[in-house]
Amino acid sequence: MKKIIHLTLIIVLLVACKETPKSDSNESKIMEGILNEVTGKNEDINEKYNLLLKELGTKTLLTKEQLLLAFPRKLGNLALDTEESRISSDETVIGMFGEDMVRMEILDAAGKNVMGAIIPLKMLHLNKITSEYNNTIRYSKKERNGILTFGTDRDEDTKSDYQSELRFLYDNRFYVTLEGKGINVDELWDAIRVDDLKRFKDLNN
Q1: How many CB atoms lie within 10 A of CB 194?
Q2: How far is CA 166 from the centre of its chain?
Q3: What are phi and psi of 46, to 5 degrees?
Q4: Cβ-based neighbour number of residue 33 at 10 Å
Q5: Which pLDDT belongs to residue 173?
Q6: What is the mean pLDDT of the chain?
Q7: Contact, 72 vs 197, CB < 8 A?
Q8: pLDDT at res. 29
Q9: What are phi and psi of 119, to 5 degrees?
Q10: pLDDT digit string, tens, across residues 49-98
Q11: Residue 144, class by beta-carbon neighbours within 10 Å (0-12 exposed, 13-18 middle, 19+ buried)?
Q12: Of 52, 64, 69, nearest to 202 (Cα)?
């Protein structure tokens, strides 16, 4: 199974390299990450995500009702824009806060969702690139309140709906994506309180 995952990873990333314009430096970093993954380097990272895949794969997904009940009505001082949070087909619950200032998605990474959540997080962890070739998009990894977060900052002239994005795994189970409008990654983190997600933690059995 591991060999299949590694082979798939190589194919996906090689295709991405060809389709996305990048500098020689960025291409080298992508290839370095692929080779390190396949040749068994980054042992600590590999072990961490392999354990998560094993543990989360045995857990039962939360129900739609549980997801809606756990979803916060406030993030920091930002109120939920509407009481009707949306549930997507892959058990992702979505809501907007602060009059569309912050968008939040939370995916239950248990059961059948484990591969789709943990492998992307692992690739973000392995990624050595810090910015796009034209430097209008910048990536960062930073531990915040004991949580490893993966950030993206975009310049306004990229015409993106949201200028900042944070991804992290909450309570070793819930894949959280935050997007901020008109703010950078640090300001996005400062706008929320992790304790606002504690109802998800209560349901993590």
Answers
A1: 18
A2: 7
A3: -60, -45
A4: 20
A5: 97
A6: 84
A7: yes
A8: 52
A9: -65, -45
A10: 999 999 999 999 999 999 999 999 999 999 999 877 788 877 899 999 99
A11: middle
A12: 69
CB 87 within 8 A of CB 67: yes
Q: What is the C-alpha separation between 174 and 197, in angstroms, rounded?
A: 10
Q: Which of 8, 45, 205, 194 is nearest to 111 (CA)?
A: 205
Share of the chain above pLDDT 90, in %: 67
Count CA within 13 A, CB hemisphere, residue 111: 12
135 vs 72, which has greater pLDDT? 72
- Do 160 and 179 meet the contact criterion of CB atoms below 8 Å apart? no
Q: How many CB atoms lie within 10 A of CB 189?
A: 23
pTM over 0.85: no
